[in-house]
Specification:
Rossmann fold, alpha/beta, six-stranded parallel β-sheet, 224 residues, binds 2-phosphoglycolic acid, binds magnesium ion
Length: 224
């Protein structure tokens, strides 16, 4: 039997990226003289990658974008985000120890994020987390992305794991829905960017700190 796989969401789960997402988004929308957004707006804007975040910010400011207007703004966002990376973004408390613990216990670890792969991979690398992950799949890595269950399943397969022996950990509705639709147990964390109360997401478990993420707990959550 293959080793069990633990799949992590990135923004708001592994790494607190909010300050840099807000900074790069505000740099982007300033090109159109739009008023800056704040952290409270971010929970409604983030979740489907940078392109959607920019489009949502313009809509929030009452200036909806035509499809063909988005690309130059996306280029502006990417240039700013890459230049600052990793900026103020940091792994959440206890994460590094948890990754060490799970790696030591033989779990396969993977990242499944709706962030573009070209932003997700260098961010994970620059924070020194890359060596833990057998696969890092972005929102544009496959033909589908969260909440489509195919995103999680393809990530697990890319990591060399088996979707029948996996757990998904995330902060938002996309993560928990995708896991449920894939038949994969899920854990929600409260420190991310959910725009609805996380108790309503219907995850199988909640952890409030990565210290709670132990091999014993994860094995108990998986199907026999
Ligand atoms: O960047 C986004 O919009 C979402 O990223 P996440 O899937 O890692 O939360
Ligand atoms: Mg997230």
């Amino acid at each position: 039997m293959k080793a069990p796989t633990i799949v992590f969401d990135l923004d708001g789960t592994l790494v607190d990226t909010a300050p840099d997402l807000v900074a790069s988004l505000n740099h982007t929308i300033a090109a159109a003289s739009l008023a800056p957004v704040g952290y409270d707006d971010l929970t409604h804007l983030v979740g489907q990658g940078a392109r959607a975040m920019i489009a949502r910010a313009f809509a929030l400011r009452g200036e909806p974008l035509a499809e063909e207007e988005i690309q130059p703004l996306l280029d502006r966002f990417i240039a700013h985000y890459m230049a600052e990376m990793p900026g103020k973004s940091r792994p959440y408390p206890g994460l590094i120890d948890a990754l060490d613990r799970l790696t030591e216990a033989g779990f396969i670890l993977a990242v499944c994020t709706n962030k573009m792969e070209a932003l997700a991979v260098p961010l994970v690398e620059k924070l020194g987390l890359g060596r833990h992950f057998s696969a890092i799949a972005g929102g544009d890595t496959f033909a589908v992305r969260k909440p489509d269950p195919g995103h999680i399943i393809a990530t697990i397969e890319k990591a060399g794991g088996d979707p029948r022996h996996a757990v998904m950990i995330g902060d938002s509705v996309n993560d928990i829905l995708a896991a449920r639709n894939a038949g994969i147990p899920s854990i929600v964390v409260p420190f991310g960017y959910s725009d609805v109360p996380i108790a309503e997401l219907g995850a199988d478990r909640q952890i409030d700190h990565f210290d709670e993420l132990t091999p014993v707990m994860l094995r108990q959550m998986m199907r026999p």
